[in-house]
Amino acid sequence: MKLTKLIPAVALASAMPLVAFAQDAEAAAPAPGFDEFGPYIMTTLLFLIGGFLVMWMAAGFAMLEAGLVRSKNATTQLLKNIVLFSLAAIMYWFIGYALMYPGDAWIIPGIIGSIGTASMEPVGLAAADADLGYASVASDFFFQLMFCATTASIVSGTLAERIKIWPFFVFVIVLTGVIYPIEASWQWGGGFLSEMGFSDFAGSTIVHSAGGWAALAGAIILGPRIGKYKDGKVTAFPGSNLALATLGTFILWLGWFGFNGGSQLAAGTVGDITDVGRIFVNTNMAAAAGSVAALILTQLIYGKIDLTMVLNGALAGLVSITAEPLAPSLFMALIIGGIGGVIVVFAVPMLDKVKIDDVVGAIPVHLICGIWGTIAVPLTNDGTSFGTQLVGIVSIGAFTFIVSLVLWTILKILGGIRVSEEAEITGLDKAELGMEAYPEFYKG
Amino acid sequence: MKLTKLIPAVALASAMPLVAFAQDAEAAAPAPGFDEFGPYIMTTLLFLIGGFLVMWMAAGFAMLEAGLVRSKNATTQLLKNIVLFSLAAIMYWFIGYALMYPGDAWIIPGIIGSIGTASMEPVGLAAADADLGYASVASDFFFQLMFCATTASIVSGTLAERIKIWPFFVFVIVLTGVIYPIEASWQWGGGFLSEMGFSDFAGSTIVHSAGGWAALAGAIILGPRIGKYKDGKVTAFPGSNLALATLGTFILWLGWFGFNGGSQLAAGTVGDITDVGRIFVNTNMAAAAGSVAALILTQLIYGKIDLTMVLNGALAGLVSITAEPLAPSLFMALIIGGIGGVIVVFAVPMLDKVKIDDVVGAIPVHLICGIWGTIAVPLTNDGTSFGTQLVGIVSIGAFTFIVSLVLWTILKILGGIRVSEEAEITGLDKAELGMEAYPEFYKG
Amino acid sequence: MKLTKLIPAVALASAMPLVAFAQDAEAAAPAPGFDEFGPYIMTTLLFLIGGFLVMWMAAGFAMLEAGLVRSKNATTQLLKNIVLFSLAAIMYWFIGYALMYPGDAWIIPGIIGSIGTASMEPVGLAAADADLGYASVASDFFFQLMFCATTASIVSGTLAERIKIWPFFVFVIVLTGVIYPIEASWQWGGGFLSEMGFSDFAGSTIVHSAGGWAALAGAIILGPRIGKYKDGKVTAFPGSNLALATLGTFILWLGWFGFNGGSQLAAGTVGDITDVGRIFVNTNMAAAAGSVAALILTQLIYGKIDLTMVLNGALAGLVSITAEPLAPSLFMALIIGGIGGVIVVFAVPMLDKVKIDDVVGAIPVHLICGIWGTIAVPLTNDGTSFGTQLVGIVSIGAFTFIVSLVLWTILKILGGIRVSEEAEITGLDKAELGMEAYPEFYKG
Description:
Ammonium transporter fold, two-stranded antiparallel sheet, globular, Ammonium transporter (chains A, B, C), membrane (chains A, B, C), Ammonium/urea_transptr (chains A, B, C), Ammonium_transptr_marine (chains A, B, C), ammonia transport (chains A, B, C)
């Protein structure tokens, strides 16, 4: 205590918040030491850092989508993104987490989890109890919640510029409370896919293609935007703010280090933290390769580089490496991510050919590259097989797609999911919200 | 050293920066081991991570405010935000930190701290000295500084679009150098409020409502914008860039994990890191609940969702949980944050009724919800009482409000704090700075 | 395992991804304990956190530059920034890392490193091998890669609004694959500068002024924008989106904590983490001082505050402290950063006098302040000398400038590096990419 005169005050200050749980002070007295519980502390820290990085991806989706829609729909898109994240946070607590991690209490073993709200360990228990799990329950909940929210974020972009706000929120509630937790439980909750040996490290299928399937179902029921496919021609509706779209992509790229790195689910041994390092560089390499692949391809095919393709190429690389970011060498990560970038360049126009109107390209990026990444796992991971990977892709895809299709149809029947033609032409911001994103800038 | 041929070079490289303090090498020889000092290391890391997250909130305020003002005042708002953060960094070092953490050297015991500049421990001392505090002094300073800066950020939004730039900076200098450090010392520096048992975990009152009181004083002295309240009607001046405002809200939401989580002030035991996890999920839940509460309420009351209310609802939830983010269950966090969201929806029009013109809604969000959060502490924390909470709210509120009122009045007398009517109509960017934020976009 | 019913499921879930490397399970059985390897774990974590913060700086440069160019060139600037980051990631893996860290295998000892691609330790090796380096190879690669990418980011801003896209990418490939790794190897790879005792903690010279020299060479070969210097007058081309520019500055400020703090290259002892804390506060102080210095100076000299100068002042402070963020006291950090801010205010018009057109001010900020910061090292670090610092500045500067000059000239001869006059007037976005950043907003 001899450093500076400030130290004692600092120490005092630190004692203040502790008053909050002073009642536990006695129980906590012989607090488990640092050494023995270092791994618990480090893994909890990994969940918290990984979690806040993935939370940041919600902002990335918001910026990407607000930048890629026309400015007359930007407010609506921003609103949908912050609200879907909020709804996910509530629903995942309310029923999702228990459905996803039922322990031994499955309603239908390996298929449908249990009913209940999530709860954290009581304050002070961890401090007093030496017989703990491998990390704090709350930190695990925090991290897992962010994956649930990401799944919903994926849906929002595809359906932009024409969907009614409230039915979208209802869909998000079911998706984050029920659909995602159930299909994710099959693998991450110890359900039938994990028993089979399916492998999806951080969720190429469980998060990204699931989100993509839900989006595809919505796009089919909803139909394309007015004027998108007319007289056999595809009309491009350029994004209104590419600076925002680029910012969103950078945010997603950053957040993905938490998404994939945190999915190591452990950081307290030399082996685990070294693996997290491998995951970081592979994730980065795949994104870079996807971006460069789209760069070169759009130049070759169209004679001009397409920035939105480059952005989606980076995201495609990220989705592709997500099923197995640990096992590949840097060279294999480059290949896997680069193929993701190639897929996006070809899949976007193909989707237009079948008149599925995906405003931001989420289906090529998340659904198709999610499948590609999952199929690619056995290329680098000996413990997996193409057959099992396919079973995982198909079962999660079929479940998510069919339930989503049914849900969108019900919503359509109940009150409609599409705004009026007039509202769509005016723009959802003015028509539905009465609030423009850029009210002072003249529009072309 | 047998991993790859690169390792030796890496090791060499790592030695390079060490040259910088080679003079301390000998003293440092028997460096305190990792095991014994794990908690010191982890808590220092918590301060650094928490600190950079809260620093990021300065960008969040900048974006939120630049998005909510009219574009003719956006440059000014951006300038104010980056400069206030800079001034806070300098003033908190120059006098703030010593005032706030006087140790045993109070000028007036428990009320006014000591005089002096902050200093870090010398390079190499920590390495050589086994008799250390619980974390590095610099990391603590870094973390605490960010709270001081946040207090100033809150003020800047309320007074937008009409305040003169230099008087605002003078106010910031006094606020960050004197007003905040004094009132914060009462609790976090071990002053009279902490002795009484007042509880404000991360600063609902000490940071947020203090900033709100300073803003309110300014708004009263400054008066409303031209045309805001005319002929008994309230005119809405819509924000010019809601994408920025949404981005700012997401940034603040992200930064708040550092704000509340870092306020645990310790991360090196199982109990502490588990508490940080609880704080993260409660913080997130309160924000989500505030956002959804504002969503539902604006739909019910106005028949249309109001995005800026939803954004402020999320922030209101965050402010509300800040006084006690550790003790509540997830359900209680939802209630506390949700009520924050409700408060904002009702407080914004109420403020307009009394003709207090708060451009971004900082007073409802930070002042009123800060009070609510502080009053709510005894609901979940047995060691506190409503009476003591009220004493804390009133003493910090009265002090900050009165000193701010006096200071704004002095500034008004000395040279005026409000731009000319002409400048206000033209916009501060052109009139005061000669620099528009979006010079190429036509304005409506 | 008695906390809640959720724990067993959580534990199960955590086992899932582990399937991915189950083949290593046996080898990993006696995994090195936490205690002994705590420093390895903490330093790896520092690299990963520092690395993702510096990665985020790529977004900062993108926003800063997109905000400071005219809107007709914003898409191009965004594209260049995401692609240069991607190219850097690939090239640094492909040849850069081996060139920079050759170990004992120099091609020309101390001057030119070795040939080869970078590789990570195999999965599971770290877990099984107790005889490890001081941190994971992949985490080191990740961190170092980000510095390489930053060097390229600096170049992109200066040459905006007139350079052809593909020649720029070719330059980036050579810069990130060859030029940067070679000059950086002289110091950080254990080359001749490090043997001499040159000191550049986090790269004021190695990263920032190197990037600045490459930019200067390009600006000379490329020439100024049409209309910039006409009839002896300098025409200002105001940035089109100052909100983005401010956001970019905040992002860079945030990322710099990783840039400088991570350059401690160790976090597993009390001494190291305490140093990281010192670095954080010094970095912050220098930025604040640079910003305030530019604020005061522009008011005094021009009678009006210039926001872009304040932003560049903050960046100038950051660059200035980067050569020695550890040794200075807070007061010296304020002086060093403040002088950086002063330099920028005077250097920007000086550069215009010699008709070097630097669109974003990267040469004053990164080149000139990089030199200043490197020269200032002996002021606070006894183990260094002005002479040796000058040798480092001159050798890295001469090498980078001359090689860049040659490369830009070759590119000019081969196919030209400048767009047509017509394309420049139309804007690169329409002319080269056929894609506007803000297609719906009327331009003035």
